[in-house]
User: What shape does this take?
Amino acid sequence: MKILYRFCLRAGISLSGLLLAVLPSLAHADYSWNFPTPVTPIARDTLEIHNHFMIVITILFVVVFGIMIYSMVKHRKSVGHQPARFTGPTGTVQWIWALVPFAILLFIDYVLMGIPAYHAVLDMEDTRTKADMVLKVTGMQWKWQYEYPDSGIKYLSTTSTPREQIANKEAKGEHYLLEVDNPVVLPVGKKVRILLTSTDVIHTWWVPQFGVKRDAIPGFLRETWVKIEQPGTYRGQCAELCGKDHGFMPVVVHAVPEPEYLAWVDEKKSKLAAAAAGSDKTWSKEDLLAAGKDVYEKQCAVCHQSEGQGLAPAFPALAGSKIVTGPLLSPEGKLLKDSHVDRVLNGKEGTAMQAFKNTLSDTDLAAVITYERNSFGNKKGDLIQPAQIKSLR
Amino acid sequence: MSTAPSIEHETGHGHHAEPYQGGVMRWLTTTNHKDIGTMYLTFALIMFFIGGAMILAVRAELFQPGLQLMQPEFFNQLIGVHALVMIFAALMPAATGFANWQIPLMIGAPDMALPRINNWGFWLLPPAAALLTLPFILALFGIGDGAVNTGWTLYAPLSVQGGMGVDFAIFSIHILGVSSILGSINIIVTIFNLRAPGMTMMKLPLFAWGWLITAFLLIATIPVLAGAVTMLLTDRHFGTSFFNAAGGGDPILFQHLFWFFGHPEVYILLLPIWGLIPHVLGTFSRKPIYGYKAQVYSFIAIGVLSVVVWAHHFFTAGMPVPALLYFMYSTMFISLPLAVLFFCWVATMWRGAMTFETPMLFAQGFIVLFGLAGLTGLVLADVAADAQYHHSYFVVAHFHYALFAGGIMGVMTGVYYWLPKWTGHMFSETLGKWHFWLTVISFNLTFMPQFFLGLAGMPRRIPDYALQFAEFNAISTVGAFILGFSQLIFAYNIWKCVKGGTKATDKVWEGADGLEWDLSSPPPHHSWEIQPVIK
Assistant: This one.
């Protein structure tokens, strides 16, 4: 056993030498050793600070453990070293030697690292000076809502990675888990003040290339800012554990030149206006069912599953559910408490079931309620019109 | 430190040494510090393997992108319970086991001061561990939705939303907290009252000093945690709104309360280890401990600083600039007393006559790897850079360097150092060295890639990840499995040593210094019946 151990020790040493020799060839492009390329002033600052720190702590590490390893080689019994008996510094010279490292450490902490950190913090927290526009980000289980208060645009952004890819039934795409249906669009070169909040639990909005990470806290506003310097698509994701699909709520930002951004704003506005107009017309059942299926897959299937079977015990089944198959509205056309419509509009306190009236349009709500009442073996046969939803809000 | 006059020890005399009651009753009713120490250590070892099995399941899921083995709900349960088990049911009981075995031996006492409280302190642990893990089993029978799924930090409002696993965790934490406080009171009373004549506080062994500070920190912070989880309980079931903005509360209040406990907890876990390391270094360098007083003052300084830096755990939650700056600079200040410890450790070895038995290897491995934890901790204190590190795998790697390399490897150092004293047999050096090298190499293989994953932007606590993180995750998983299975060598070596082996001398190690080495191996039933006198 002992011989085997010695053999392995020697083999280990020569093997690690070999590994070091072939390491460069292992380090192909897929390994990333540092922060991704920064595209905002904050991210550039952060990367620079980080790089300095890494150099400083590497030096500290090498010096301290260099001394230790030197000692381990020289001061061992097997080379006949006789142990000294000292227990502390004696004399002025030794005291100076003992105190110098701590003076150096204080210098590193409060000058070398402390001063750049001070400036970086002030810069990072200065969200208001010369801010060109505001973006409001609302986290919710498990998607983001983006709102542009200046132009009245507001929409949801959910992951667009197909469930089949996650379940390994399909080949994974290039941007697996880091792709969404409606990305945020921001102009380059503008200081964007970002306000964050949440409707349920704490989420964290993080785009590594922006150097920005800030929590979205229910009931409170937090803020940060970005000034993107290069056009491009930047990807990140939620960074605070927020329940079941925490790993599946990506952030995607399209940074475009200002004219392109303005064109996007106009286009988005007219699309949203068209969708809102839809709530005034009377819809046929077929159209509601077709639209409802789309909304269901995007917003509801995460928890209630694609066939409405639910995910016991936290996420109840909709198939055969008492609530879904209960009465639609009171005989006077009023909202019934704890009815299907009430649940979808107002959510259920203390659960992941959120108040969808805050995020979905009248049309989407009417469509998805109609769809749920007439799918998964539920055969209510009734329907609700967007106009009715509008009056119930 | 001077040593005691040699005393003849009889193991089987007098009314105190009546034969043990047989079987289970012996262990249920024992008030002997060594029996209770053994139970603490055995319990810790078992829970170490249970917590380890949980995280191997997690690492297996993370071997490749996509969901292969489990759904996210179950994944979230495993990561949280892994942490709670490792911290509260493995590391803390292991340190308490050391205290029970060693403090009376090292300070010249016959036993702990409060033996019945000691027994009660231990027997609270198994029910607490059962409460923590029971929801897993209940879920198999269709009751409830599994164990606590919020991560060990239990952040509101996620924990308000969670299933009954959260309630089980809350009560488990209450019981564990009572156990810790009882243990701490016992240790404080023992150290203050049962020291051998002539052993002033400034002659107290460093291990006892480390534990003394830990005990005070536990008493100061566990009630805060208990309060926080009780508020959580009433928010969940009795309609209060401590953490609910709609009712006038604040979710961030929970983070403040939690980390007011949580940061000192790191030092609670590490101070006993920092106390034990100098003894090992001195023994195997055949040299007295360097800078005894400096180390004592550093322990005290770290204890005090630990309760005023908590908010660096949630810089990204947003706080006023002066608060950010205060918590950043105060956190950086901890590097100073910690650097004193590192200086003293290296200086204790300097110009000694070192040999490299297993405990020494673990102690030196501890110093290097814990050094990495300290250095990465220093950069994490920087608010600007922290915005990138926070909530990412960089943090995961950092605290595993602190708590595995710093905590668990420290415990292993202690086990190998004192095991011959406890059992009267030498363990297998060869197996010990195998265990050391496999642990160190696979530990780095597991956690070094996680630093790079964090820098590249992988958030922690996600069950599935983007393709660019695949290679490092695969390496990390391979490392984790080697690391996990290497620990079987540790268990086997302990088992063999308990069963038999070369007889250990009283002094066990050539360079050993301290009262415990004057007793026989294993020590008599009532350790010091006649207190030694320290000159």
